[in-house]
Amino acid sequence: LLRRPRPALLVGPAGSAQRVAAALLRHPRCGVRPVGIVAEHPDGSGGLPVLTTGEEVQRALIQNGVRDVLTVHPSVRLERGPLLRAMAESGCTVREVDADSPACASREQLAGFSCRRLEMGSRRPGSIGKRALDVTVSATLLLAVSPVLLVCAVALRITGGRGVVFRQERIGKDGRPFTLLKFRTHRPVDEHESATRWSVADERRMPWFCRFLRRTSLDELLQLWNVLWGDMSLVGPRPERPYFVAQFGQTYPGYAARHRMQTGITGLAQIHGLRGDTSIEDRARFDNAYIDNWSLWQDVCILLRTAAALVRPTGS
Hints:
Blueprint (H helix, E strand, L loop, with lengths): L5 E6 L2 H13 L5 E7 L11 E2 L2 H11 L3 E4 L4 H4 L1 H9 L3 E10 L5 E3 L2 E5 L9 H34 L4 E7 L5 E7 L7 H6 L11 H9 L6 H7 L3 E3 L6 H10 L12 E3 L1 H4 L8 H13 L3 H14 L7
Parallel strand pairs: 1-2, 1-4, 2-3, 4-5, 10-11
Antiparallel strand pairs: 5-7, 6-7, 8-9
């Protein structure tokens, strides 16, 4: 590695990327040689060339034989998701570098920075088993609760009028948007309120049946269709709206890293009481711990604990 370090591209804000690149060049023993930075705008500080177009990135990949890509900001995974997936599909290894924190003993290190490998669209070990569990359980539950779904739909139609299904854009794995399904328990004033209002759990004008659905989490049952279609998993980080994903990704370290696995109906954070108006930082920590230590048995345990919690519902 000292004689022939691996050429790498850094992706992220030009200032942070130049700082990480300089550290890598000062520590050649890490075996990585930065050759360029992919950013929206140059920072004018000199250093490595800043690539701002797809053509420049493609040329750098080919001319330098790049096989390593380093992201230097948590939001890059969402903002540059298609580009990172394309690089991964071309044979590059994509890693996330924590440019603002010292390396931890339990994490991979690179020139003194903590880093971890990102799975950009490739299958994680055991992902086939996870998908098989999702399909089997969601299909079985949909058949079992179909009478309940019908009763809920009819009751909502009678008490609240037309439009019993609520559709909303959420962010899934690798920053991909999808349409999440729920029973409609409230009617936002407009699309802006729907996309940016955090919670309506205390809405006193909500009809009694809608309050019942939210307290018992029955309004979430339609998400079994999202699981069956492959938009979600039974277990994983809860999906959020694009407006809040952008906010939280800038505010809370590690939040964007939650999107390296399929989002879920329930998760490690939820069985520890992190629902509704609870700490986003705590949720991100639990979600990343779940991903880092994922196993099929852990999924089964979380599902069993979720089922037990439904006996004493607290609402969403």
